[in-house]
């Protein structure tokens, strides 16, 4: 059972989060700038993360290299998504990047795992919210950094259980 975490990050926040998630899942960690199409395919659980920029856009490196993901064969692939955003300043596009990645991988036949509750957040709209829950892990280091550690730990725990990952000591 192997796990790959692929992230993009402009100013380092999502990179630091990705490192923590990869450590907790004992996963291979790759920046999207270094990822090849095979990296999306050659794992049992694929974890993708991006901050949201512009107004509801993917981070630039993701935008520039989205073809690498679009070219991947993801039929039946189990995919977990995470993202960072700022719900106070960007209340109408909070963590939209998670929703953008979601739609791309779902169109390619992936199975989304790691949904989370929208409870505890305060935003107006988010592409990451579907049927009353987030399609991944939403983090707000700008306004709710004190909640991040617990949110990551709970998500890792959730994935370890749902994916039956052979991890005993959680390090998140
Ligand atoms: C110009 C700019 C635009 C942003 N747009 C959004 C947005 O639309 N939605 C959102 O949730 N966060 C938005 N953010 C907040 C970032 O996603 C957030 O600060 C994130 O943690 C940055 O991650 P990084 O350090 O990995 O680049 C924006 C930030 C900046 C500076």
From TrEMBL:
Keyword Coiled coil assigned: no
Concerning Pfam families, the annotation shows: Flavodoxin_1
Which keywords does UniProt give here?
Electron transport, Flavoprotein, FMN, Nitrogen fixation, Transport
Cofactors named for this entry:
FMN
One molecular function GO term is:
electron transfer activity
In Swiss-Prot or TrEMBL terms, this protein is called Flavodoxin
Lineage start = Bacteria, Pseudomonadati, Pseudomonadota, Alphaproteobacteria, Rhodospirillales
Q: Where is the Flavodoxin-like domain?
A: 3-160
- Origin, by domain of life? Bacteria
Which family is this protein grouped under? Belongs to the flavodoxin family.
Question: In its keyword annotation, does this UniProt entry include Electron transport?
Answer: yes
Q: What is its biological role? A: Low-potential electron donor to a number of redox enzymes.
InterPro entries, per database record: Flavdoxin-like, Flavodoxin, Flavodoxin/NO_synth, Flavodoxin_CS, Flavodoxin_lc, Flavoprotein-like_sf
